[in-house]
Amino acid sequence: MSANTKSLKLRIKSVDSTLHLTKAMGLVASSKIRKANIAMQTGRQYEAAVQSVVDLLTSALDYRSSPFMREYQGGKTKLIVIAGDRGLAGGYNANVFRAVRDFGDAEIIPIGKRACERYGADIISSEKFYAADAFKLAQQLCSQFAAGEFDRLGIVTTNYISMMTQTPEIKWVLPLKKNNDTKTTAAIFEPDERVILDIAVPEYLSGIIVACVRESFASEVAARRMAMDSAGKNAQQMIDNLQLEYNRARQGAITQEITEIVAGAGN
Fold this sequence. Notes:
Elements (H helix, E strand, L loop, with lengths): L2 H56 L18 E6 L9 H9 L6 E5 L1 H6 L12 H16 L5 E9 L5 E9 L18 H74 L1
Parallel strand pairs: 1-2, 1-3
Antiparallel strand pairs: 3-4
Helix pairs in contact: 1-5, 4-5
């Protein structure tokens, strides 16, 4: 067998090994999709619930006296950047980091192993980031914001649209903004709206962080599933092309050997 056919055979074996790997990773991602989507939907529902409470509180007359309602007029920015724990998810992680480029002077709080590695922080897994972790972080950030240590807080997350589409976005969560579309109700808060608002903000921020982490994780799993499916199809196409090339090379080698034998017999 010629050197060309040997090299083709080795390459086919190598690509086939990669194909098995992509199939395995795709199956792992598929097994996580349903659970991740349920968690994402639960997070969205809780975020909507706490958002409605905050909208109601910020519609009160004395809402402006809260430190969380001061208007942003420039100053220090903090960003919670949520990325994945692993690679091989298409452009998922790269798109998140690209969204941060315009905020070079912002202080970064990374969640997810890839984000922690990029920004030199202790590893925090996005898959294993729980509500208790979010509430602890929210309390710390609310205390710092109320004390004037920074002026704006945003969350760089990924919006799950479908299995095929996930887009990065920045949610600005502090300072709070009054929702003018909120209808006034007969709700009475004791002792008053301002006190309840200041108590509710850490819970509100915690709910948003949890929802963003869960939606980002669902986006990561979906992106990895699609990336591995595409990689698997490309690997199979490569194997088919290499197999065809191998068969042609092998046939050419056999034809050459027969020709040499016939020529030798004629002599």
